[in-house]
């Protein structure tokens, strides 16, 4: 029988292995694989694409008529606006473009989830209403991170992280100038609701309320004012909240055709 002091001595000599083993076990877990997938996704967006022609916005919450909607990633580029929904899932994935629900099979257990393409459709339409561009300027993409395998043929806009790079690079028709791209980023940042625990909690409440057919209004008011029009272009004025500068947090009227028209008026 080994002496306890000998065992203790061996453990003390090998203590440095414990954090290494812990890290290996973590990254072999579903949560760890999800983090690796997210990291790969961020690498594709931030490094492989380049920031001169592509700008990334993450976790954007926008007000809608029935509450709020949360968009995982938006890439504003000179070639269009890519609206990205991410899914951290494992197992086999079954689905098609027009199916209402898809299926996840994990070790023989089946689970259903909403078609992420349908889910992302609302995100695209919310952005389209905000920015007032035609359909052909927006591209919906669903990216699966984590350890999952497609078991049915997927549309070209349902990809793994590395497939996202190929999908985005396949669109090379210039739609915006670099200045217009920056204006798009600025308008989205101006319209998005403040990030943080309170906003996330309210978004969850909005989702529950929507499911119960009792819509909630977002905290930040963004209502069109009837009979209040822009003196420059004639479009309606909209109530906004300043997100930057000396007047941060204060409300003002801004033209609904922004960034084409930058007229503002104090409330």
Rg over CA atoms, rounded to whole Å, is 23 Å
Shape: globular
What is the typical, i.e. mean, pLDDT? Answer: 78
- Beta fraction: 25-35%
Assembly type of the chains comes to single chain
pLDDT < 50 stretches: 214-227
Strands side by side in the biggest sheet: 1-2-3-7-9
Per DSSP, the total helix count is 7
Name the helicity range. Answer: 25-40%
Determine the structural class based on helices, strands and strand pairing: alpha+beta
Distance between the termini: 84 Å
Domain count, please report it: 2
- Major sheet, described briefly? 5 strands, mixed
Order of helices and strands: HHHEEEEEEHEEEHHHEEEE
What does this structure look like?
With 267 residues, the protein is an alpha+beta fold. It contains seven helices and 13 strands. β12 and β13 form a beta hairpin. Helix content is 36%, strand content 30%. α3 runs parallel beside α5. The radius of gyration is 23 Å and the shape is globular.
